[in-house]
Structure formats: C-alpha cells, structure tokens
Amino acid sequence: MTDPILQIKDLTAGYADSSTPVIKHLNYTLNRGDFLSIVGENGVGKTTLMKTILRQLKPESGSISYYPDDHAVHIGYVPQFRNIDGEYPLSIRDFVALNLTGFKLPWLSQSERQKVTEMLERTGLKHLANRPMGQASGGEKQKAYLAQALIEEPDLLILDESTASLDPISKNDLLDLVLEINQKFGLTVIFVTHDIALAKKYTQKFLMLTPGKFIQGDSADLSTEEIWGMMEAHV
Amino acid sequence: MFRFEFMQNAFLAGTIIAILCGVIGVFVIARNMSFLTHTLSEIGFAGASFGVFMSWPPLNGMILFTTISSIIVGQLSVKQERRENVISAISALFIGLGILFLSLSNKNASYATNILFGSVIGIGQSDVIQISALSVVVLAVIFVIYRYLKFDSFDPIGAQVRGVNKTLLSIVFLILLAFSVSVAAQIVGSLLIFILLTIPAAVAKYFARTVGGMMTLAVGIALFGVWVGLYLSYLTNLPVSFFIATIEAALYLVALASKRWLKTE
To answer: What's the complex ipTM?
Structure first.
C-alpha cells in the first residue's frame, strides 16, 4: 500500500532570468519510507528541483503537493557546503543543537540536552561531542550536518551531494548510517548525487534527470545490470 | 578613587558597557562585522555632532544616526562582495557630515575631542541611567532572539535552510549594534568604540570551547580593559580610551602569539 508524502504533478520550473525552464513536465510520487536517489549531471535541474521541493522556488506550472498537508511536512535539508569558521569555539554538540530554534531561553532545557545526546549517539558522534567543528574530519562534519538536520525530527530528509567531497570509506559510513535510520525509523530520504554506484548500492528507487527526459525506477523491479545500463547511457 | 561621584559613575557605566560589548561582540565577530562596527563609530561621531548642533544630548544624535545608517548599510550591502565598498562610501559621507555639524554648532575643539575620545568626567548620573536602560533593552532583545541569532551567526547556511528570516534578523541585529555603539561611545569615544565591540570577542574566540564560554570570556576581557583603564586614567590623568585601547590591543597580540605557540607545540 502506498502512502505518499510528496507528489510532483506536471512540474515545470526554472529561473526568472532564463527563458527556458530547467525542469519540464516532471511527474513523481514519493512515498513515506522511500529512499530515493536523484541522479544527473550538472545543469540538468537537480538543484532547481530541490529548491522547488524546499519551497524556495515557485513552479512556473504544475505543482508539488505534500501529504497530509503543506504545513505538516517538515523537511530536513543537508546542503553540500557549509560556511563555518574553523576557529569558532563551536563543538559538534553545539553545532547539532543550533537547529533547536525558537523564542526560547538561550540555554538548552534538560529534555533538549537529552535529545542532543541521543542524536549524537544515533549518528555515532557521542565520543566526539566536544570536538570543535573546525577540527572534525570531512566525514565527521557530514555526520554532524546530518545530526543537525535530524534533531528537529523531519518527515523528509534531503542529502544534497553530501558524499561528494568524502573518501570512499566515509561515503559508505555516512550512507550506512542514513540507510539504518531509513529502515529503523521509516524516515523518507532523497539523496542527490552524481555517484551512480552509491545510488544503486543504497537507495531503493531512483529518479534520473537528463536534458529533456526523466527516468524513474525501482531497484527491486530491475536487475542491477539494467539500472546500470540505463544510467550510464544517459549520465 | 570612589570618593568622587564622577568615578563612581564612570565605573558603573564602564561595567555596563563592557558587559554589553562582550555579549554583542561575539556576534559581531561571528557575523564578520568588524569593519561595519568601525564605520558605525564614525557615523556615531557625525550623529553626536548633529546632536550638539541641534542642542540635543550627543547620545540621542548618535542613536539616530547609527540606527538609520546601519539599516541603510544593511540593505545596501546584502551582497557580501559589495559590502566593503558600501561601508567605505557611507563612512566617508558621515565623517564629512560630522565635521560640518561640529563646525556649524560653533563648539570648541575640546567638545569634539570629548566626542571622539570619550570622557570620564563627562558621565553624569542621568547618563548612567540612560546607558543602563539602553543596555538592558539590547540585552533583553538578544536574550529573546538568542537561538536564532546564534544559528544565523555561526552557521548561516544551516539557518537559511531551516527557514530563519535572515533579513529581519540582520536588521534587528544592526539596530542592536547601533544602540551598542552609541552607548559604548560614552566612555571610550566614538573613534575607539570598535575596540570594546570587537577585540574582547576576537580574543575569546581563540580560548573558549563553547559559544557561551566565548561570551563569558569576552565580557571578562572587556571588563578587565575598562576597569584597569579607568584606574590608570585616574592615576595618570591621561585619556581612558588610550588605556583601554592599549590593554585590549595588547591582549589581542598576546592571544595571537599564544595561539600560534600552542599550534606549533
């Protein structure tokens, strides 16, 4: 039985300073608990699609619907780059807690501190909680970004090229963690990547963006060779 | 020393100013606004001169000018790459205006010196009350918006992704900064305000382990500079701003040197 969290209907989207839309007539339904990879080369509209899903860009036509309603779906987004001065006295614990916003007391409550500790445990960062962000490795930083996005308990998590600058071990380490959270807690995940091998290894579904064409599939319905063939023919 | 009412007032005002500067300075450093703070001090000079010209208290003129100009600077310099040019242009304009208003007001050179370099004996009880009231307002607003301000200052991309209203937050912070500049100018003068607003936090950045720790350390460093500066000024009869500037600058150099030394260890 399907339980949609997000439905893209005949979406056309682009930027005001360009006459040609980047995304044209895209249809896609994302179900709760899905782990979807969005694959495509530069300029095919991955960022445009993400901005539209994040409601930062209005569609030119078509729509994106969220279920049960637009305000009920909370999206956690992990961007590829961060601008954090390595000299700031910002520990990994502090960094994760930054996302606990609101007009609240400056210091964390007991339950919030507990929540941060649990999230550090879940993402394997507990032993590094007091390490300054400036001294964290690339993989540890990505895990901290992930923990920060997860602390507000999103319904949908978007990883935007999060593995792009990591070494192979750290890539697998991060995605093992995301997969575990996806399977254990049913978190819906969109993983934007150039890396076809990682997409195939970790995600159940894929959506490939190519100039003028979208290919979508379910790993369970296709053999590895078929998906590889389809993807490599276009990317 | 505390037999004299003016020294009591100076210490009280200095303490409040140091606490305010230590707290807001953390965000000035994190938001990379040291140059803007320097410019606001020059704008403060123009505002104070305007206040004198209008026969207002200089503090009121400073608040008016720094608030308006900080919003203008904030709006004009949304794009990082043009921020410094905008600030330079506005800075030049306001220094010129400051000189004009001072000239039109027919006040003597010592009045200009007081505005530029601050004055210990010039702080009366009503000034202490006004400084306290403004500082409480600034600190109260920071208390309320602290979590958003911290998020946006230390992880701007994360805050943007979370949907924090960055434009509104930036304007509110600039107004708070304008108030802080106006308040701090009362003791160190408009020319040297940025010393208390930037150096203590810049030093604290190197030694603190958390943002809260950075704030506490910055307040401590600002308090040390102000208290020792006031004491030495009382002893020597030399300008307090000279001592505060020298102490804070020396602390910064020591911090830099020890940071490098620790790195090479």
So the answer is: 0.84
